[in-house]
Design a protein that fits this description.
alpha+beta, FAD/NAD(P)-binding domain, eight-stranded mixed sheet, 32% helix
C-alpha cells in the first residue's frame, strides 16, 4: 500500500499521530534520525487530557501503571519547605483521571513505540529527511539512511521533528520568540532514604529545581537551572553542593546527566499545502506547568482524524484548514502564559520575591483547601479547558457547553468515544426527528439518562451534542436542531460514519 502520510520525528507527538492514523486505516511511515528513543528526556508530566486521549486509543491504563500519581507538591526555599499543595484527586468529578501523572518521556516513548508496533508500523530509525517537494499531486521526499538516499512519495507530510525541525526550515517558516538565558540540566539519580513519590520544587532568584519520581527504575528525575558561574562543560558534581541542600536530598548514584537550552517560540504557520507541523516543531514552551509534550500530543490527536477523513473521502479538503486555525491560537496563548509564569518564578525583582516569600507559602496552601480553587488549578494544568469556539466546526450553546469545548465527562459517556468517530449524545429524551436524522446521516446516537452528574458537568437536559472524533463538541444543540446538523454535514461534505 502506498504511503499516505510520512511522519518525520518519532517523539511523543509523531508516535501518537502515527498510532491515531494507523488505527483509522491510514498507511503511515514514521522516520527518525536517531537510533532509538531518547534517554535524556525532559518531559515528565502526563496530564488528564492526554490520558483521556489514551483511553480513547485503549492504553491509558498501561501508562498509568508505569507512572506515579503525584500526591502533593512540596515547595522549598533556602533549604526549607515553605508550602505543601495536596494534589490527590485534585480534579475529582472533572475527568476519569483527576490527577497529575509523573511518567518520564523516555519510558513514554518506548510504550508508544510498542503500541505503534502492535498496529503493524515500525519506526524507521537512523533515517533522516534530506529534502522534499510538494505539488497538487503529493509530496516527494528524499530520505537518507545509513549513507544511502531513498525516494519516498506520500500524500501528506507531518513534521514532528522538534525544535530544529528540518520540515519547518524547508518550508521557510518563521519561528519567532526567544531563548531563556539560563542553561538547564536534567539528571536521573538514585537518592538515599525512603523513595520520594511527590513533586519537590525549589524556587529562588535565578534558581529553579524540581525532583520527580521515576517508577520504572525507582530513580528520581532532577530538572533545574545551572548556576551562572558554571564551567563550559558542567557535570553533576558542578551542581551537587548547592542542589542537595536545596532539595534536602543526598544523591548516591547518577545514571545520566545532560544540559540543554529552553526556548519559547511559535511557528508562523502550522500548515503549508500538504505539509503540517506539530509538537515542538510548531511551538516551544517554558517548563512551567509541564505543558509542552501534552500540547504536542493534542496536536497529533487533532490532526490525525482530519487527515484520515480527507484521505478516505469522508470530508472536504477544507477540513484540513481547521487544524492550524484551532491549534495555533492555543499554542500562542500557552507560550505567553507559561513564559510569564516562569519568568516571575525565577525573577530577581520584587514580583518574584513576593511570589516566593509570601504568596506561595501563605496563600497557596489556603487556596488549595478550597474545592473551587483546586478545580481551577486542575482545569488549567490538565488541558481540559482547551476549546475551539471560533472553529468552522463549532456552533451553538447548550447549558454551559459551547461548540468547540471538550465534551464534559460524566460516568459512562466517554466509553462510546473509543470508536474514534463522530457521534451524537443526548442527555435526557431524544426527539424522534433527531433520531431519524441521525439514522439518515449514519450518525451513531447515544442517549444517556438525565442525571445530577450531567447537570453538574454543565450539560443541558434534553439537549443534543455532536461529538467530534477527538472528543470535542462540534455542535451544542439545545433543542436538538436537526437543520444545523444537516448544514454542517453539507458544508464540509462530512460522512459521519466510516462504513461504506
Amino acid at each position: 500500500m502506498a504511503t499516505q502520510v510520512l511522519i518525520v520525528g518519532a517523539g511523543p507527538t509523531g508516535l501518537v499521530l502515527a498510532i491515531a492514523l494507523a488505527r483509522r486505516g491510514v498507511s503511515v511511515r514514521i522516520i527518525d534520525k536517531n537510533s532509538e528513543p531518547g534517554l535524556a528526556s525532559r518531559a515528565m508530566a502526563v496530564h488528564a487530557r492526554t490520558l483521556e486521549f489514551y483511553r480513547q486509543l485503549g492504553f491509558a491504563d498501561a501508562v498509568i501503571n508505569q507512572g506515579i500519581k503525584i500526591e502533593a507538591i512540596h515547595l522549598r526555599e533556602h533549604g526549607e519547605e515553605i508550602a505543601e499543595l495536596p494534589l490527590h484527586d485534585i480534579g475529582a468529578g472533572l475527568s476519569p483521571y483527576p490527577f497529575v501523572l509523573a511518567y518520564p518521556q523516555d519510558d513514554h516513548e518506548r510504550l508508544l513505540t510498542a503500541q505503534l508496533q502492535a498496529e503493524g508500523v515500525q519506526v524507521e530509525w537512523n533515517t533522516e529527511l534530506e529534502s522534499f517537494t510538494q505539488d497538487e499531486w503529493g509530496v516527494r521526499a528524499v530520505l537518507e539512511s545509513n549513507g544511502e538516499r531513498h525516494a519516498c512519495s506520500s500524500v501528506y507530510l507531518c513534521g514532528c521533528d522538534g525544535a530544529r525541525s528540518r520540515v519547518r526550515a524547508s518550508l521557510q517558516l518563521e519561528f519567532t520568540g526567544g531563548t531563556y538565558k539560563h542553561l538547564y540540566y536534567v539528571a536521573d539519580v538514585q537518592t538515599s532514604g525512603p523513595p520520594n513519590r511527590d513533586l519537590i520544587g525549589h524556587l529562588g532568584a535565578n534558581t529553579f529545581a524540581l525532583m520527580l519520581p521515576v517508577r520504572s527504575r525507582g530513580m528520581q528525575r532532577l530538572i533545574g537551572i545551572m548556576p551562572e558561574d558554571a564551567p563550559e562543560y558542567p557535570t553533576f558534581e558542578t551542581i551537587r553542593p548547592t542542589l542537595e541542600p536545596l532539595l534536602g536530598i543526598q544523591v548516591e548514584q547518577v545514571n545520566w546527566f545532560s544540559t540543554y537550552r529552553v526556548h519559547h517560540r511559535v511557528a508562523s504557520r502550522f500548515r503549508v499545502d500538504r505539509s503540517f507541523l506539530a509538537g515542538d516543531a510548531a511551538h516551544l514552551h517554558s517548563p512551567a506547568g509541564g505543558q509542552g509534550m501534552n500540547t504536542g500530543i493534542g496536536d497529533a490527536i487533532n490532526l490525525a482524524w482530519k487527515l484520515a477523513h480527507v484521505l478516505q473521502g469522508r470530508a472536504d479538503l477544507a477540513l484540513l484548514d481547521t487544524y492550524e486555525a484551532e491549534r495555533i491560537v492555543f499554542a500562542r496563548k500557552l507560550v505567553i502564559t507559561t513564559d510569564r509564569a516562569f519568568q516571575l518564578i525565577v525573577s530577581q525583582g520584587t514580583g518574584g520575591q513576593l511570589l516566593r516569600s509570601w504568596l506561595l507559602p501563605h496563600v497557596f496552601p489556603v487556596l488549595s483547601g478550597f474545592a473551587a480553587a483546586r478545580r481551577t488549578l486542575f482545569r488549567t494544568l490538565s488541558q481540559v479547558l482547551i476549546h475551539y469556539p471560533d472553529s468552522a466546526l463549532s456552533g451553538g450553546r447548550a447549558g454551559e457547553v459551547i461548540g468547540g469545548d471538550r465534551l464534559p465527562w460524566v460516568p459512562d459517556n466517554f466509553t462510546p468515544l473509543q470508536t474514534l468517530d463522530w457521534q451524537l449524545h443526548v442527555y435526557g429524551k431524544t426527539d424522534p426527528l433527531l433520531a431519524a436524522t441521525a439514522q439518515a446521516l449514519r450518525l451513531p446516537l447515544h442517549a444517556f439518562p438525565w442525571s445530577e452528574a450531567a447537570e453538574h458537568a454543565g450539560l443541558l437536559e434534553d439537549a443534543a451534542y455532536l461529538v467530534r472524533p477527538d472528543m470535542h463538541v462540534a455542535l451544542a444543540l439545545p433543542r436538538q436542531e436537526v437543520d444545523v446538523l444537516r448544514d454542517l454535514a453539507a458544508r464540509l461534505q462530512l460522512r459521519f460514519s466510516g462504513d461504506s
